[in-house]
Amino acid sequence: MSLTVLIAPLVLAVPATLAGDASAARAAAADLVLEGIAAAAETSAAARRMGLLERAAEEAASSLGPARAAEVLRAQVTAARWRALRDEQAAARWLEQALRTTADDLDFTPVREAEMPAGFPDPTPVLEIELKQYPAYRMARAESHGLGGGFWTLFRHIESHQIAMTAPVEMTYAGAEAPREQRMAFLYGSRDLGETGTDGEVVVLDVEPAWVVSLGCRGRMTRSRVAEARTELERWIAANAAWEVAGPLRSMGYNSPMVPAARSAFEVQLPVRRVDARDAARPQHEPAPGVSMGD
Q1: What residues contact residue 286 under an 8 Å CB cut-off, 6+ apart?
Q2: Distance between CA 87 and CA 95 in Å, rounded?
Q3: Which of 20, 93, 179, 182 ranks highest by number of CB atoms within 10 Å?
Q4: Lowest mean pLDDT among 32-46, 203-217, 271-285
Q5: Rounded to 5 degrees, what angle do the CA atoms 20, 26, 29 make?
Q6: Dist. CA 19–CA 8, nearest whole Å
Q7: Where are the alpha helices (DSSP H) in 3-160?
Q8: Structural element, H or E, at residue 142
Q9: pLDDT of 294 strictly over 90
Q10: Is residue 194 a contact partner of residue 179, using CB atoms and an 8 Å limit?
C-alpha cells in the first residue's frame, strides 16, 4: 500500500525563531514515537503491540499539528492496519520499523560540510513540503553526463579560480517520466566573486530571485527518489491552485559521498510562480484568436 500523502495547505519558509520551535517539536515527536516502540517491545502479543505503536504514532502526529510528517505517521498506521488483516505479527514488526525510520527523520540534523551562499534559506526539514524564496545568486554550471557527471569539471573550475566550495550542489533534470540529470552547478558564495561568462565547459551565470516548492529528504539521492519526490511536489501544486510550475525539476544536495547515507540531506524542488503574477505579465489587450491587431 502506498504511503503517498497529499498536504494541501500552503507552508511558507519560517523565520529562524519559529524554525527553532518547529525543530524542537519534531524532536519531541520523535521521542514520543521511540517511547511507544520501547513500550511495544515489552509485550509479545501482536494486538497489544499494534495498539501501543498506533497510540504513539497518533500522539506524535497530534503534537506536530498540520506538518506533513504528521500525515506520514498516520498513513503508516493505516497501512499497518491493512497488513494486520493478513498477519498481525508481521504488521506490528513492519509498523515498528516504519515508525523508527520516521522518528529518525524527525530527529535528523543535516551535516554541514560547507557554507551556503549568502542569503540562502535553511534546508527544508525531512518529510516536509515547503514553499520558500531564494535570493539572486551566481553559479558555475556544466552539462551532466550521468549521475554526478559534471562534478570534476566544476571542481577544476572553482579550484583554478580559487572559489570556495559551498553547499548545496544544484542539479537540474529533464524527462517527463523518469528524470535524468541534465546539468550540475556549483554555487558561488557571493555574486561579487568571479565573473559571468564561459570557461571551457563551464558557464558562469547569475540567477534571479525565485520561489520554489521543496521536499526535504534524507539518504542517498537516487533517480527513483527524485521521481517520487517530484510526484509529491506535483500533487502539492495541484492542490494549491494559486501556484504553477515555472521551471525544470531540480535538486539541492548538501553532502558529499563521504557522509553516511543516514546523515545525508537533499531537497527536490520545482520552481513556481503565482498564477496572478503570470497573468499580470500578459498584455492588457490581447487579440481574439484569428484576429489581426493591424499595423
Answers
A1: none
A2: 12
A3: 179
A4: 271-285
A5: 145
A6: 20
A7: 16-40, 46-64, 68-84, 88-106, 151-160
A8: strand 137-143
A9: no
A10: no
Tell me whether strands 169-174 and 137-143 are parallel, antiparallel or unpaired. unpaired
Indicate the length of the chain as a whole number: 295
Measured distance CA(110)–CA(90) in Å, rounded: 32
Distance of CA 235 to the CA centre of its chain: 14
Report yes or no: 99 and 76 within 8 Å, Cβ to Cβ: yes
- Grid cell listed for 206: 547569475
Residues with Cβ within 8 Å of 230's Cβ and at least 6 positions away in sequence, in order, are: 179, 249, 268, 270
What the block records as the C-alpha cell of 272 is: 513556481
**Structure pTM?**
0.85
**Cell numbers of 234, please?**
506535483
Instruction: Phi first, then psi: give them for residue 24, nearest 5 degrees.
Output: -65, -40
When pLDDT is cut at 50, 70 and 90, the band that residue 295 belongs to is: very low
Which has the closest alpha carbon to 166: 192, 184, 186, 143? 186
